[in-house]
Amino acid sequence: MRIRVVLAVAAVLAVLLTAGCAAAVDGRAFAGPQVSAGLDPQFVRDNDGSDDDRLAAAVLRDLEGWWGRQFPRLADGRRFEPLRGYFSVDSSRPGPPPPCTSSTDEVEGNAFYCPRADVIAYDRAALVPVLRDEFGDSAVVVVLAHEFGHAIQQRLQGVVPSSASLGSGAPTILSEGQADCYAGSFLRAVHDGQTPDLRTGDAGIDAAMSALITFRDPVGTDARDDRAHGNAFDRVSSFQDGYDGGVGTCAQITLQNRTFTQQAFATLSDAQSGGNLPLPELLSAMGSDLDRFFGGLVRAKNGSWTAPTIRAGRDGCGQGAVGLCSGGILQTDDALQGVHDGLGDYASGTLLASRYALAALAALDRPTTGAAAGRAALCLAGAYTADVGAPGSGFSLSPGDLDEAVNLLRRSGDAATATDGAVADTTAYARIADFRLGVDVGADRCLALR
Question: Model pTM?
């Protein structure tokens, strides 16, 4: 965070599977023997018959079937044409390179769609097993669904109105955001049981989003970079838009209706610090700015506002690293420093904002206990985040701050906890969605949450 933000809407993954008959799997689970025994991956060229290739083949088979049903909706009834091929690559040893490459080294740790050859290739040595080990099979699903989204973009160019086709001149970050959106739509179908080979539950969706968050661009990447895919907030936002709105929502993405939050560092000193303030400076700067925002909100609703007093304590009054305690005391403990050091200054800042939000709810004679209060507090923290940098604000967000908030929310429910410890948002997906609601729509919508 530096001592000023342009925010907007912008969306991650999951899934685990079997083959032959669908089976429910979640989180970090691995593909079981059903995949090994039930699916012939021979349509994937150069595959070695391993579980990794069978997993990828199951994903690709379900993607083809699902897009066969979805594509006519976007293309004025036109039929979906399957891709020309899929390639499994072992980057750990010499071998025949897939189309659009000159050696297997070019595919190391990667998956890609090549429009010239109309193929998808993936690395079964340094991508698929690494994803499965780190996040579970769901990461493989989201990566391949994203690449399949690029094949859909290619098929829509010149076939349908520009509202459903980005066109060849679209900036990279826009086309990547749309591919994330299409991936989110597919994951929703998997979650809802609409695919024959794949199944996942809520924990799998959270695991999928964790992978997308990890795949974000390096902090400080310019949104105009021709390699930009988006920061964590942008990628999760695109994924959630597709998950909630379907392929029709994704097809309508344009530069006119989508603003990305990714930004480059403004100064060398900001880049060198990673945009992070020491915790004491953050508490001082944010305390004043939170007073500005929430005091203004309360007074605009005819309430009486007294800013909380921040004190160090032994615990966060049962609300985690920082909590709103009796007498308007905001109590912090050593865990807040751990959040700050481990995730960045705006992770701790998001916790602080959510506790100020509870103080604002109390000042407006609204409940601060119960699950709905926790949701409202998190949403209001998002509304505050969108207002940082407004006239009268003492600082702005640095390029990595929104990613720090997203990382906090995928790991912890503390920012969605009411004063009695109640938490409504038990999934990372729901927490991020409520935070985004405040960012995108504002405080009034947060106050209407039930």
Answer: 0.87
Alpha helix positions (H), 262-344: 268-273, 279-300, 334-343
The beta strands (E) that lie in 304-379 are given as 309-312, 322-325, 329-332
What is the SS3 assignment for 324? strand
Q: What is the band of 327 on the pLDDT scale with cuts at 50, 70, 90?
A: confident
Q: Which residues pair with 396 in a beta bridge?
A: 2
Alpha-carbon distance of 301 to 291, in angstroms, equals 15
> Which residues, at least 6 apart from 19, have a Cβ–Cβ distance to it below 8 Å?
34, 35, 38, 39, 54, 58, 197
* Token pair of 376 as six digits: 């409202």
Count of alpha carbons within 13 Å of 261, Cβ hemisphere only? 31
- The CB-side HSE value for 301 (13 A sphere, CA atoms) comes to 18
Of 342, 176, 173, nearest in space to 263 by CA: 173
pLDDT of res. 239? 96
What is the DSSP secondary-structure string of 224-262? TSTT----HHHHHHHHHHHHHH-HHHHHT--TTT-----
Tens of pLDDT, residue by residue over 252-297, are: 988 778 777 666 555 555 555 566 889 999 998 899 999 999 999 9
Whether the CB-CB separation of 78 and 155 falls below 8 Å is answered with no
The tens digit of pLDDT for each residue in 55-109 reads 999 999 999 999 999 999 999 999 999 999 999 999 998 889 999 999 999 999 9
Residue pair 230/238 in contact by the 8 Å Cβ criterion: yes
